[in-house]
Every structure is written in C-alpha cells, then in structure tokens.
Design a protein that fits this description.
Elements (H helix, E strand, L loop, with lengths): L2 H9 L5 E3 L7 E5 L2 E6 L5 E5 L3 H9 L4 E2 L7 E5 L4 H17 L3 H5 L5
Antiparallel strand pairs: 1-2, 2-3, 3-4, 4-6, 5-6
GO molecular function: DNA binding
Protein name: MmcQ/YjbR family DNA-binding protein
Keywords: DNA-binding
Amino acid sequence: MSRDLVNELCAAQPGAEWSDPWGGGHDCWKIGGKTFAVTGTAGTHVAVKTESAELAAFLIETGVAEHAPYLHRSWVALPLDSAPDELAHRIRHSYRLVRTGLPKKVQVGLPPF
C-alpha cells in the first residue's frame, strides 16, 4: 500500500475534502469539516476512527493497528502496508462513523453514499 492509494480511497468517499491543516505535508481527509482519516508527514500510517475505544484496543492488541498519537482512544493508526481490503474497509468505516455523527443540517447538504 502507498500513501497515494490511501489518498485515492479517501478521495472516493462522497463529499470528502483534502486539507493540510497543520502544514508540512499531512494528508487530512474530512467530511462536513470533520476528520475521518489522516496521514502524517512521515507517511507510514493512516489514522482512522473506530466505533469505540474498545474496538481500537482490540485492533491494537491483535496487531492490526497501532495507537494513533495525538488522537482520541477510538482512533487507530494502520500501517500503509496493511492488507488493501483492511485499509479500504477501515477508511470507509471511519468515513461513515464521522459522517453519520454530523448534524442533520450538514448531512442534508452532502452527496448521497
């Protein structure tokens, strides 16, 4: 997996927007102004949201992911060389979690998914 493929997967999510809010080469993907995936400047991992801190702990414990620094315990960092289907699944899941958590008035203005 590469950073380019992660960006391609993120860009494919309806209404996804790219930004580099901290400067220096971060790839931060947002929906409705809220982050659903971020790759740091080192470009070795992509951080994504999970549905709970417990699931994140399980993914970390089983070696699927690592702790995502600077983010809530419900976020994990997946290595960019993870299985392609795992990366795609986790990115889509993070997107959906963040999107469905947006206020209804924001959701109404987004493209369907």
